[in-house]
Amino acid sequence: MLACTLLILFAGGLQSLAARIQVTWDIGYLNISRDGLSTWRAIGANGQLPIPPIYVTQGDVLELTAINHLDMPVTLHAHGLFQRNSTYYDGPALITECGIPPESQFTYIIETRDQSGTYWVHSHYRMEGIDGLRAALVILDQDTSLLDEYDEDVLLTLEDWGQEPNNDLMERLQVTPFANLSTDHPTVLINGINANLSQPIRFTPGRRYRLRVVSMSFTYWFKVRLPGHTMQVIEADGIYSQPSAVDGLDMCPGQRYSVIITAQESLEFNYALNVTFYSDYIPQISGLTPRYHHVPIVYRDNAPTKTFPLIEDHEVKWADEYAMESRDEQTLLEPVDQHIVLNVKTLVNKVGIPNYAFGNYAYNHVPVPPLFTALTTGDMALSPSVYAPQLNAIILQHNHIVELELRNPDTVMVHSYHCHGHAFQVVESGPVNASLLVPVKRFRGRQPMRRDTITLAANRYVRLRIKADNPGVWFQHCHQEQHSYSGLAFTLIEAPDVMQRTLRVPQEMVEFCRILGHPTQGNSAGRAGSDMTGIRPPLAITGSANSIPDTR
């Protein structure tokens, strides 16, 4: 069973609203078949897969202890949590920490005082997440008035699942891309089990269901529809939205939505929740991509399942991630102090293996995690020269309004951009090539939607805004693990001068770096100034005809 302890915090003899939730993951290998196709060495917690979801209430402090019984380091990332004033708990390996060594343990402290909604936790070391080390995290609202909008809360997790350990797959894909189509394409898990054996969700006529849908994917997209019902979107990536009626959700890896579904009044029929697992940039192969699955929605045992005519995707009103409006009080951030343009660039080597970059260099790790460089180089931490080029480091001034313009000139490839440390405002999207007949969408309301993960479609750009009010080092990357693994990432070095005054990395994390052979002082090479002696030169990647100059 999942180790979980609830400790109530007391103040002045009175019970406060906050609790300290203690969860322990004893992390180890499991030989398991989760999709009925193959058995292989996966990664679980407390001897089980799936790992049960974690529920806390806004204001609680989650203490998540990882005990590492693997033969490699482990990290944990709370996907979508800001980790305000504690960037060292954010989880990406060799960026904010070195990792938890084998046969060691560490407790991540996750504050939830300013966040509620739907999230998930996963490893951020190599391919451990897709190999099983992931679970949903639900932060229940402290504001009970929101409960008036629905009667029941239902969690739906969607996962991709491989046919072999993904570290092995990634090594193979560095030599021959998609060498074995039957095993390189993942299958689907719904609520942790084989999607072909999906357990029914029971509906009662007239009741309102909050369906929390979590794409715990590292590869492809999910589409979710419930024909015969309307979905009212109320949350995206932990941020409440203005309610909007849609037919379905089209979700890139890492995204989350909450929708309200009002059950039909009749018991005459049951229904099927349709889940499609697909990728626009992979040729369709019957039975492999896309994959189609159904979750039974049961009104009455033995009732027939209602059928509907097939309709084309373009006839479906999908939730529009570029045009939603937030329900919170944050108006459009302006004026912009720093405008950053980054082009997605691709370099395909002689055997057809792609490397990617946001900017000029494919991202790669360096001996000193950039958080330690930011904390130990004094005034030089404000200079890009102390961060190796392959970190694609961008320095942000404290409290500046920053606009990120991410451009994808590729005519085929689609990406899933995930932002650590912030929820960005979605302010504009449009075509990279002006000759394309694609409309520009500019936000014209009062409160732009904020979220932490968004699709960067082929031949499109997005403009996103954040306020640099969370000093830390924040990883920015494609959530398709193969793309991130191949270089599609950059780092925001946010207010390093403020970090040096306010942050203290736990001594255990410093000791873990020593055990794993990583320096914790100096520039990226562990040296003074801009001397990068000993670091492998970065892989330079040039842009396409539709790129414009990168700016920082």
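(ticket continues) Second input and output from the same batch:
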Amino acid sequence: MWLTLLLLLALGTLALALVAHRLLAPSGNPFAQPPLEPPRPLVTDPGARDKVLKQGIHYVGQMHAGSMLRVALDQLTDGQLCWQRLPDPYDEVTLGPRCYQLRAGKTAFVAALEEQFPEEKAAIREFMRLSKVASRHVALLAVLKMVPRCLATLLVRTGLIYWISPVFRMATTSHSEAVARLTDNRDLRALLCYFFYGTAPEDSSFLVNVLMVHHYQRGAWYPRGGASEVAFHIVPLIERAGGAVLVRAPVTRILVSPDGAAMGVAVQKGPSEEEVEIFAPIVISNAGVFNTFGKLLPPPLRSHPEVSSRLAMVRHGMGSFLVFVGLRGSAAELRLPPTNFWIYPHNDLDTMMTQYAALSRDDVPENLAMMFITFPAAKDPTYEQRHPGRSCMTILTMARYEWFEEWAGTRAKHRGAQYQQYKMSIAQRLLERALQRFPHLCDKVEFVEAASPLTNQHYLAAPRGEMYGAEHDVARFSPAVVAAMRADTPVKNLYLTGKGPASPMSPAPMLPLQWGCPPKVVAMSHGAVPRAGRVQLRAGRGPAWGAHLRLHRPGPPALRGPAAPQEEDQEAPGPASGVTGTVPGSMNPWVLLSWAWLLIWGWDGDRDEVGWRWR
């Protein structure tokens, strides 16, 4: 044990010097230079804006000046992406008849909780202390994915992993069990896990929930100009680096050489569905573990024992149901709040989720449980400039894929009257509940559109309509699964990124994974582009796989097949939502040394006290 610690200390000291040299030397750090120019005026031309991939963002945390996430996004967008901070309260949580508000700022956040729960100050302060420890140590989960497999297996099987950091015990403890140790107040228990992503608190990892709360402790931000601004300003950076970004080019399969190594991807080109092969020595997939392993690999590789074992470690997450409401009148005229509203029928979220998931299809419309309401028009100060006299509301709840499975396999927009009637019955009930909360909007509704898990399956390539990928339950965050679900795969030259090897928690701890870049990469992803003039997830036909890029080498990727000319009415290249960077799991010395240094840095004075408490 001591020998291991001394070795890590030596590696950490060396890594600190090497990392500092790399980051401080402009020649060695591609992000050492400041942005080229200050933010330019907002581009409102519909033709220009419709040529990028649109994302759905409700709000983002940790965007305060100087934060790791803010600095990274400033660099990736040349400083052109501007963020609007949401005023307090940025979140309001309703638990039956009682409402609670969340306020921004390290001190204000805790003070607001203590003001609303004056008898629970000790529990609140302990929870915040644990969240701080979790945020400092969460990078160790990434380290476990990157160390040699033999070392990871040794640490997991011997139980030594739990002595390295309390974060691993937090990851394998359910949220309900953890908060039950802190307080008997059921409202406070529910409030500490109000971010709902389809997993009941008794099944979800305490680490994920505590990191979600920590992520928004300083407040919430929304991109000025809408979520598409993120992609709009990343594209030029990729193109300037010699990359190419394509949309409306769904990936049909991963190309594999005779010896079983990935060598590129095949995509469909245009309405003719002609297949074009794109070759590259490395393929990085952001299409999700189920799509990558279960659909895109050739059939012989899908049955590979290591591929099957990885798929067996995870299961599909719960689907979602969204309602998009168009309102007549500006956000100011309608007095729309920028606050996000999380509404639950009571404070027993475990029982609520169990009963809701057990509903039959016909019982769903009259027994809807949780609901999230947000007004994008009120968050973005440029919305009135882009859509004068109009505003919008988004309503979200969770939904099982099985409730809509009868219509699986039918074409979007052609699923039949019965499907449309069922979908709109749920949408109407959600809208009625929202209008009970905001009765002054009853006569302002101009249109209502709904998206079921089948909608997500079609437009987002979500296998069972899930928004957040594989289920984020306690089992997924066990050390054995964390160590196994790596970026590298059993297929040589094929790597995963995004929700497969990671999770929907704060991306800031994962940024060191991106230091360095392979010279030539094809990255495939799936995303969303709205239909012109309507609130939709994506325009075009079929799943939006097909964002491909190559870095640091000029010219387009190598193609085999007819050229793909750009038609005037064809959508221009949009952004890739996949992350291209150093391949985690490879023996890149920069990555290993920097993470060894981070491992040493992760130990702090709270380690022993919290660690023993969690063992």
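Agent notes: Residues 505-520, 527-615 have pLDDT under 50 and may be disordered. The longest helix spans residues 2-24. Closing as not reproducible unless the customer responds.
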